[in-house]
Amino acid sequence: MPRSTGRFLAIRRDPHSGELLARGGDFEAHSILQRAGFVAVVRLHESYHRAPVGLTEGEESRLAIDAVGRLRAVGYHVDCDERFDTEARPAAYPTLGAPVSHLAERLREATDTAEAANIVTELTAPHDGILAGFEETLGALAQFFDGLGDASDPYTAGRLRYLADEYVRVIRSDLAHTREQLADRHAPHPGRRACTEQVPDHEPERSAVCACPPPPRALPAPAPAPPPVGATRLRR
Description:
Blueprint: E1 8-13, E2 20-24, H1 27-36, E3 39-42, E4 47-50, H2 57-73, E5 77-80, H3 97-109, H4 113-124, H5 130-146, H6 153-185
Parallel strand pairs: 1-5
Antiparallel strand pairs: 1-2, 2-4, 3-4
């Protein structure tokens, strides 16, 4: 079985420009690179990461060494310049986004509308929900830009407040309405049910570990309809 190319990265200085670049990896690797300090570059035909501008060569080397250690600590194969090689394996801790992603897992396992409503409440709760915290964070970031001093900073601050007011609040309001619909339905999900892990006495299969029916088989896609008579005739 071929190994996933997403588990391989290269962190090297570009021989032509001298820039410190990181190429390859999947989204998890990209998150690690950015937490180490790299900046994402997304082009039409390629994506990679670079060191922030204005760093000394020593600072860039420390950044690269840190990234190599972090990536290898969680199982990535990193090809790097010799000066960036390291035996250090920093400990990896759960990120703040991990509990939010766990909500998706809980929704995939939810068996009724009440359970789903409780999960969505973690997003929409007006005082301490995830979206309320996100909106507050955007406001704090806008305040940060207000005091930076560059001519473009007030525009950036205004843009952040616009995102919070016009986008986050709309998403939050829409999801809150969806949550209320779920809370009022009181219905089991027809395609899911909680597994009791009990096998009835009349079960003929000795290998059975529960009484749950097998998942439905996907129906094959219907064959395309033939073109009408004369539709494929070439004009002369």
